[in-house]
User: What shape does this take?
Amino acid sequence: MDCVAASQQLAKEAPSNFDKIEYAVLVLSGPEYEAKRDVIRATWAKFVGNIFIENEVKLYKWNHTWVGHTPQRDFIKVFFVVGTQGLTGVMSERLKSEHIRSDDLLLLDNLEDSYKNLAVKLKYSLQWAQSHLKSLKYLIKCDDDSFLRVDLIVKDLEAFAPNMNDPEIHKHITKKHSSNENKGLYWGYFDGRARVYLNGKWEEKDWFLCDTYLPYALGGGYIISKSIVDYIARNADFLSHYNSEDVSMGVWTAALEGINRVHDIRFDTQWKSRGCENNMLVRHKQTIIDMFQMYRSLVDSHGEKLCRTEIALSKYYFYDWNVLPSLCCK
Assistant: This one.
């Protein structure tokens, strides 16, 4: 089945309040990972309430406590993306029940949820977003073992995107272009030297482009602008995809002119966590216990401390956009 046909069957017609969503968070998850989704709902997903509107301007202020109602924001929504094709009746019913109580599942009826289908899963999700989220500005993609400071990500997007030129963030980033006329944003922690896997879980049998993957933002968490969402959704049937959805995103966007590619050391999205620093925006490869510990630390410190104790397990790098990709990341 082609991408367009499948995207039309992803879910029931989107509610009209979806029209107000400017920031969509897509969390790729699996049918059996309800516990992981519930932890996100109970922790970092609540931080959307720290963004508020004053005089038509979106501002950040820590507004979260152990008690009290978490305010909802109609311009930010977290969606958990799950493929449902081929599921047992019991699992399907569990997902339906979960969606009734949470109202945040994006169920892909024509996709079997598996690692080999991750890139297709992302394609279908972007097609759905392009069709249903009419006010979308930016899409934040992460995994269900990622902890996000979604409030601070939206704060920076509101203040600096797509050009990302402000001195406040210069110490964290390197970027491909310094233009003030960017047509879009691709923001995360980039790699341009990764060798192509020829066997194992991540093998890419159909890869033929070069000896390394094209520069891409690691999939534990990255942000793309609506212009990129629209481009991929419109051209989905013509775009090759690979086992890794983040590698596929790098390929899909490689030829796009005017896209601001921003490497940010506050994204801890490598295959193994680099440790914990209070300024991190994304931490990948986190357990349920890790999630609750970071949430507790943030609540106890009124949003100031992500980590109980800051620790560096490995060193970050600044991506060098002025050399060949194989030399990018020293």
In short: The first strand starts at residue 23 and ends at 28.
